[in-house]
Amino acid sequence: MAKRSSEFQVYNSMTKQKEIFKPRAEGKVGMYICGVTSYDYSHIGHARAYVAFDVLYRYLKHLGYEVVYVRNFTDVDDKIIRRANELGEDPKALSGRFCQEFLKDMADLQCLLPTHQPRVTDHMDEIKNMIAQIIENGCAYAVDGDVYFSVDNSPNYGILSGRKLEDNRAGERVVVDERKRNPADFALWKAAKPGEPLWDSPWGPGRPGWHIECSAMSAHYLTHAFDIHGGGMDLIFPHHENEIAQSCAACSDSKINYWMHNGFITLNDEKMSKSEKNFFTIREVTELYHPLALRHFLLGTHYRSPVNYSISQIEIASEAVFYVYQTLQDCDDALLALKEEIEVNGKKVRLTPAGQECLTKLHEDFESKLADDLHTPTILNSSLQEAFRFMNTSISMLKKKQQKQQQLSIAKSLIDLQIKVKQVLDVLGLLSSSSYTEVLQQLKNKALKRGGLTEEDVLQSIEERMLARKNKEFSKSDEIRSDLAAKGIALMDVGKETVWRPCVPVQQEQQIERVQQNKLPLPAESVALVDK
């Protein structure tokens, strides 16, 4: 295990407080995160959840833990069946197709693959065995081929959500059935209906209910007692509440130490639902913005807080990612001629006092803020920004004449700081496997697409502007520059050369400034994580 300056604390939804993280087994962590119901392209609410738990996964590995990370696919469900019927497609084929599309989205967002990605249809035996055990323990009953969990026989029902049993309504995916002993009883097994997928069972042909799948699969891969169970806040009730009830009914030793839940993506502090059809898929966003920009945007707010999705904010995130990779590229370029000399001199070269101070602060901020319930916003918006400012100042200093020893000290500071910056970015999932140049070009290509331009269009505008300046037509020159800026393209004069880079479109930049000055809410179009 790596030494840590701060103890890792997580907010436990069960106890409603931060707790020092202590795994059940020394050096090992088991975590289960509820996955998607694969009937459509995943939306940005899903991105919010899986980026958040990907950071948790990465951070636990950074701390030296051996992590078993399980994230399931619900590949049989009412929504899948309904969608398959609408498209005239086999439910299993449709679900399998969207499982693959989901994995592509996760790869684009740089979410690491979990250790296991079980599918419900591959674990019917485990599900049926758990249901049989719950019935045997007197906590479930069969009615005409259906099996219901009896909440009256679950004394701790409501322990996670804080709901009282008399206040509970039937689960959101459950139609109230007069055959139930209590309206809050929920389905463990559903009797087969014409045209639906089915499996044989002791209670007749049918398929599992929603909640039982996660209890069965988490127990199969992690046993009945493990460290972390997570998902969106909307899963606290009924899904996770029901999971706890049925898992404890199946095994009295069932115990999850930490329940973690991410906040919604909202519009004016209200959760958006997929049923309202006012949501964005991950694909719709990454069609116009680099996936790293979406990830940066999501990490810019603490994972438990609501976050408004807006074009203005994703533009800012995109510009921030460009700044990150341009700084890293500039750093490499500046150090190219000095790296060999530094390696030869080895221990003789020391960091500058300012360099050592910046490096120490970044290290301490990184360790303390992530240890404080994964507080990514401070790292992104403060700690890393200070490091990048120092790097850019140092790069400028290297271009000036100075004593050799001082030059080498500045270069050594840059090298060591760049190593630390890349480590931080890696744990945040913001360090691409592509080269800096490739990422910068990808960001530029997305900006051109948003602006309805080609690179040839921009280069032609640069030529026209240079000609206008040569002819002292400065108003025309300014107009060309302003027109491009309104489309998200910034022109910069570097010596006798003009280069371009993406920027926040000027109109949006002015709007952001007004918001900051007047503290007005930004317009937002958003979606919450409303289903798995």
Which descriptors apply to this entry?
532 residues, alpha/beta, four-stranded parallel β-sheet, four-stranded antiparallel β-sheet, 17 helices
What does this structure look like?
The protein is an alpha/beta fold. Helices cover 49% and strands 14% of the residues. It contains 17 helices and 15 strands. A four-stranded parallel beta sheet has the order 4-3-9-10, with helices on both faces. Helix 4 packs across helix 6 and helix 11 packs antiparallel against helix 12. The two termini are 34 Å apart.
Secondary structure layout:
Blueprint: E1 9-12, E2 17-20, E3 28-33, H1 44-62, E4 66-71, H2 78-87, H3 91-108, H4 124-136, E5 140-143, E6 146-149, E7 186-191, E8 206-208, H5 210-222, E9 225-232, H6 236-250, E10 255-262, E11 265-267, E12 270-271, H7 282-286, H8 291-299, E13 307-308, H9 311-335, H10 339-345, H11 353-371, H12 376-398, H13 404-428, H14 436-451, H15 455-470, H16 474-486, E14 489-494, E15 497-502, H17 506-518
Parallel strand pairs: 3-4, 3-9, 9-10, 11-13
Antiparallel strand pairs: 1-2, 5-6, 6-7, 7-8, 11-12, 14-15
Helix pairs in contact: 4-5, 4-6, 5-6, 8-9, 9-12, 9-13, 9-14, 11-12, 11-13, 12-13, 15-16
